[in-house]
Design brief:
Helices cover about 35% and strands about 25% of the residues. By secondary structure, the protein is of the alpha/beta class. The relative contact order is 0.16.
Length: about 260
């Protein structure tokens, strides 16, 4: 039985994670942390199932007293580096779904994982469909010289572009270093109208709009043809298969993994 802790337990993703862990036959919820709902039963608060796991607000105390095998964290970008550092220093494995980590943050956490011989999976997206989109985009990138990415999220998402879009661009750039071949010199009449520039000279356009949860489109073009790859999330439950896959994978491993594609390939 895998003992699981959830940090950000009463967030939109946290509630889905608690429900998924409760329903998983090989997992047991042993820890729940949030800044709200202190003292409430985590299962009752998240999905009306009594667990006797009470919500706490001090991560270190919770780690020390409950000692989960794996922590699942979907909290805010501004604190996620400190959270993962804390898990690694306590030699507790983690599955991280929060985006917003810089390249330096990721490199530092990879080194800390190695020093503490403790595994962690950081994934910009846990939807298996979205991860397959990234993998398909990397394959298509071998055959097209031009590509751009459009990502669309709800208007409460604080970081832009999305971690999924950044990761997609990184994967595409591994097989093609320049996706602006043949473009003319450009002048933006309104600054930012061409979006942000990611690895591989890939333009990323971010849309924030109520009604969306998470969508992404990768557009490839060449003379006489356009290829579009797209994925749309309709509800957050679609992420749970990927989250549980990550928990089961990292449970008995001590490696650093960035991107769910590395365990789905």
């Amino acid at each position: 039985m895998i003992k699981v802790g959830v940090v950000g337990a009463l967030g939109k993703m946290g509630r889905e994670v608690i429900k998924a862990v409760i329903n998983a036959e090989d997992m047991q919820l042993v820890m729940a942390v949030d800044i709200v709902g202190i003292g409430q039963d985590a299962g009752l608060s998240a999905c009306s199932v009594k667990t006797d796991v009470l919500i706490e607000n001090d991560i270190q105390n919770a780690l020390t007293s409950k000692r989960p095998d794996v922590v699942i964290d979907f909290t805010q970008p501004q604190g996620i580096f400190e959270h993962v550092s804390l898990y690694l220093k306590n030699k507790i494995k983690s599955v991280i779904g929060t985006t917003g980590l810089s390249d330096k943050n990721i490199a530092d956490l990879k080194e800390l994982s190695k020093i503490n011989n403790t595994g962690v999976i950081i994934a910009p997206n846990f939807s298996t469909g979205a991860v397959l989109l990234m993998m398909f985009a990397q394959q298509a990138a071998k055959y097209f010289k031009n590509a751009e990415i459009i990502e669309l999220h709800h208007n409460q998402k604080k970081d832009a572009p999305s971690g999924t879009a950044v990761k997609t661009a990184q994967m595409m750039a591994q097989v093609n270093p320049d996706f602006m071949k043949g473009n003319c010199a450009e002048t933006e009449l309104i600054q930012g109208s061409r979006g942000g520039m990611a690895q591989g000279n890939i333009h990323i356009h971010s849309v924030r709009m109520p009604g969306y949860i998470a969508s992404q489109e990768v557009i490839f073009g060449s003379s006489g043809q356009i290829l579009k790859l797209s994925h749309h999330t309709m509800e957050r439950s679609c992420y749970m298969d990927g989250v549980l896959l990550a928990v089961r994978y990292i449970f008995d491993k001590n490696e650093f993994v960035y991107g769910l594609d590395n365990i789905m390939g």
